[in-house]
Fold this protein.
Amino acid sequence: MKALIFHEHGGLEQLSYTDVPEPVVGTHEVLIQVKAVALNHLDLWVRKGIPGLQLSLPHIGGSDIAGVVVAVGQEVDSAWEGKHVVLNPSLACGKCEFCRAGQQSQCINFHILGEHTSGGMAEYVAAPVENLYPIPDDYPFTQAAAVPLVFQTAWRALIGQTRLKASESVLIVGAGGGVASAAIQIARLAGAYVYAVTSSPEKEQNARRLGADETINYKEADFAKEIRKRTNKRGVDIVLENVGPATWTQSIRSLAKGGRLVTFGATTGHIGETNLNLLFWNQLHLIGSTMANYAEFDQVMKLIFTHRRLQPVVDRVMPLSEGREAQRILEAGEQFGKLVLEP
Ligand SMILES: [Zn+2]
């Protein structure tokens, strides 16, 4: 089968579109014919190499997959064959104390499909049956592939972790990203007042179209000062962060008394400076969040595929053979929403 692979960690030049063997299906797994796979920043980090992450090379990335079940393992119900599905890329052991408590993303052996295992940038992928989520036959695969990773991440961060309430205010930093596009919609659906920080007038317009009440261009203003000004010095109840050092100080300064900052990533580095006087005096909460537990995943998938209250945001669809160019676009931040590849 055709796949986008890399033999060594490094730059874009390591990617090649080539023939590889089809995956072998385990007894509790299914074989999916990949119809669409969406890119995530995770794919870039995995290609460049994450310290401590040992992969068997060559590696096939791709964590956001939509497709059709074409074969099932010995222990899997054959009724799955022919079903349209998306895959939950969260792989948990199911046995540790955190899994048993229903907190799969805190699993002591937590893995992500396409990061630690072969992913969906290929014509076929094998995955555990527990990770399938059926979608309606009329739902476009190129839209569905843009859903699993970003919506579960945004849902757990805002709903599971900060317990966002209607009437609260939320600041979403870096609104061009896939999780942020999901988060704007989720915050709006939950009844919150939404501020979005982004880098261009075009991205501001897109953020407003998704439901942001107000936007700030961080290239034109210190967004913490701008938030203070617009909220009569109060600040916001919640900040959603994933930029890291480049915005961390401003994000903390944007919080109201008792505010919660939730972070799910750090794209500009790993060390953020925290003014401890602000932390205790303003009684702030700093919260980390990764992916979602399986119950949270099901909740947000239902809102997308059954109730259709949330929409995936797709920047563009490209053939899998142009995967290298797609990764270049993501790396350069030229997109708004997801880049989707079709095998
Ligand atoms: Zn576990």
Summary: The first strand starts at residue 2 and ends at 6. The first helix runs from residue 41 to 48.
